[in-house]
Amino acid sequence: MRLYGDPILRRKAKALRPGEILSVPGFGPQSVREVANTMLETMFEARGVGLAAPQVGLPVRMFVAVEYEDDEEEHEGQDRPLRSRVLRDFVMINPVLKVIDKKKDRSYQEGCLSIPGIYEEGVARSRAVQVSYTDLDGQGQVLEADDYLARVFQHETDHLDGVLFLDRLPAEVTEDYRKELLAIQHKSKALLSDLAKWEQARHLEQNL
Length: 208
Fold this sequence. Notes:
By secondary structure, the chain is an alpha+beta fold. The protein has one domain: Peptide Deformylase. It contains four helices and seven strands.
């Protein structure tokens, strides 16, 4: 999981090409389907509701998400198995989001798996959206969502454009979490160092 402070979280992701093989940092080449399955597992382990490809080190336009049988937020109910609550899951490739209800909702508490431990209310999200995307079988799909699921799709689409949920709150909120964010950045730097060492060792093995 890439953490706050990692440059990839601030880059605009590129479109995925049909049949593209992805080079996953720390894992090596994988198909899009393999990556999507890994992302779903990672999301469940972290008790999340969505995960975008940049959060696992891939600058491509794809995210996974789930709809649960209730709207319990990702950091609540941690003693309950998430899979038992799943109504449906989503893998969205090259999603294009369109707002279909411009009314804003600020009532939900929002967090991010790349900014662990920080949750805030007040992030204004459109109440309903339409998402056009390609599924894992290469088929075009169109889906409408409202309320909490619409928020999830907007949050994950933001990730594909290098936007974090804290960016949509007043600057003083980020300042209030200055100490916590510096600690996350320190962890992020250590993770990137470990990944660089792994990539170097892998390159050396391939050239022996």
